[in-house]
Amino acid sequence: MKRIVKPKKRTSIVFGFCCVLIVIVLVLSSAKNLSSSSIAQNTKRNLDYPIVGTNQTKFYDNSTEINTQTVGDDFYGQNANYPKNTPKYKDNGDGTVTDLVTSLMWQQSPDTNGDGKITARDKMTYKEAVAGAASFNLGGYTDWRLPTIKEQYSLIVFSGVDPSGYKGSTLDGLKPFIDTDYFKFAYGDTNDGERIIDSQYASSTMYVDGELLFGVNFADGRIKGYGLKMPFGPGDKTFFVTYVRGNKNYGINKFNDNGDGTISDKATGLMWMQNDNKKGTTWQEALNYAENYEFAGYSDWRLPNVKELQSIVDYSRSPNTSDSAAIDPIFNCSEIVNEAGQKDYPFYWSSTTHSNWSTDMNGRNASYVSFGRAMGYMDGKWMDVHGAGAQRSDPKIGNPKDWPEGHGPQGDAQRINNYVRLVRDIK
User: Fold this and answer.
1) pLDDT-derived band of residue 398, with 50, 70 and 90 as boundaries?
2) Which residues are bridge partners to 381 per DSSP?
3) Has residue 85 got a pLDDT over 90?
4) Which range marks the domain in which residue 399 is found?
5) Model-level pTM?
6) What's the Cα-to-Cα distance from 19 to each of 10, 25, 119, rounded to whole Å?
7) Inside any domain, residue 118
């Protein structure tokens, strides 16, 4: 008689042992993945000041939209190559919207009458905006506040197009610099004597050097310092207002000098070069400089997008009040001589194209942030028209001498050769 019990027993033991090993491996693998996921989520939650991406997905050369750029291409390194935190919102169904990246909750519409229409009559003066926050009640919350300029700027997206110069009879071809799937928006009311671009939103941040209020224009995609009086005619200037609540640490940097020429911001998760590049360059040169730069053991430096760049502005500083650039003194900032012959500080390029509605110049300009005076030519002279910390745009190529009196109604200086401060993500 053949004995077959032992072989069967041995086979069963081996089979069972293998099954146990497989289960252990799967459990450990799941635990590892869960742990990694939890760490990643916790890291994201621990950032008090996460920068929302610009939502710019298109690629541009010095004038027009182009095909996707890959490593080695002439215009690689621009905003669309580094999309960062995709904007994400939740419509709470009660007139409020929660930003899922920043944890800020927003008033969904600047409509003050509750009639669902946004007109010039919904705008407020700065004093009215400040006073209104104290009594504002929406969604069952009463702790609303007028946003800082950094909070307000978190909502801007650069999938919009600048309508400056637009002569069309309708607004169908235009796209604002805010997500209209979640937020209510209106261009300036031309029937009420406004320009299309008159869609400025008030912040609580005043310019430290003069009676200017920093605001975000979601029609043309800029930060400017606006006078509190109407520029033409009597009365106080009015703004759209959307109040905010939650995450009171948003916009507050936590800089650390790493001692190797780099500065970490623990609030945003970004590492910055302590020095700038010390000279003005064209936009394409800035991209190439960033993509080929190695420093402090890192080779993943890049040109920051405009929202990252604006995150390091210090709005408590200015050339006149602190004899410095509008940036924390932990950074080193090159000095320049501005158009008025004053000691000043540069405009800095971002990787973000400032798209225009015109097909022949939709990619001509790139956004910059002014860490010195935002110069303009008005009343026959050069002056600081919009304040250190303004975000505007410059042509990517050209000769600054072709713009002896600047550009636009406030004669914005067109420098073209702007400075560079590189950034990388803290891994």
Assistant:
1) very high
2) 378
3) yes
4) 59-84+274-425
5) 0.89
6) 14, 10, 69
7) yes
